[in-house]
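User: Teach me something about this protein's shape.
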Amino acid sequence: MGLRELLIPQDKVFFDLFEQQAATVKEAAYQLVALTENFTNVRDKRHAIEQLEHKGDKITHDIYQQLNRTFITPLDPEEISRLASNLDEVLDNIDGSAEKMFYYGVENPDSHMIELAKLIHMSTIEIEGAVKGIRSIKDPRYVEERCIEVNRLENLADDVLANAVTDLFKTTDAIAIIKLKDIYEQLETATDNCEDVANVLSDIAIRHS
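Assistant: First, the predicted structure itself:
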């Protein structure tokens, strides 16, 4: 890489990578909804989500590699690092949720799992829109609105988790309680991760508008 490439902000590269990462996260969330709503061919569907997680890892690696070799970046390096890391966390927890459904031998996801998966997917749609919005930040309010909606969805996920655990402890199968509670909590953690992403995007919109 020459001096000119080191000195000129690599706007397109970073934003392209973030948009690819956000799209991958959204696709994994969509596949999670498809898995919970139609719990057949579980091994193959879980594998498809796992492959998306690997794809996301590669994009995250590319972002950090680009960050390490770029002298001037379009966003603060800390912002780039936080956004990449938090998007990766969303993907990890989507994959982890699908993995546990498979290895814990869930026979059929219940309404709480389906609802949490849908909330994750809706959050990732908002995130993708906000990520596209920070490329030029012509309309910071648009980014802010997407982030506010993610926060609202995360609050709904908290309620779903509370209801799920309440229903769960009305049962007496200790092993099932442990397994299902673990899945519920990992799904809800993915919505927490989405909120973390939204907070970073909101900070970016405010700082660079």
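Now, about its shape. Residues 3-208 form a domain with the Methane Monooxygenase Hydroxylase; Chain G, domain 1 fold (CATH 1.20.58.220). Confidence is low (pLDDT under 50) at residues 1-9. If you'd like, I can walk through any region in more detail.
User: That's plenty for now, thanks!
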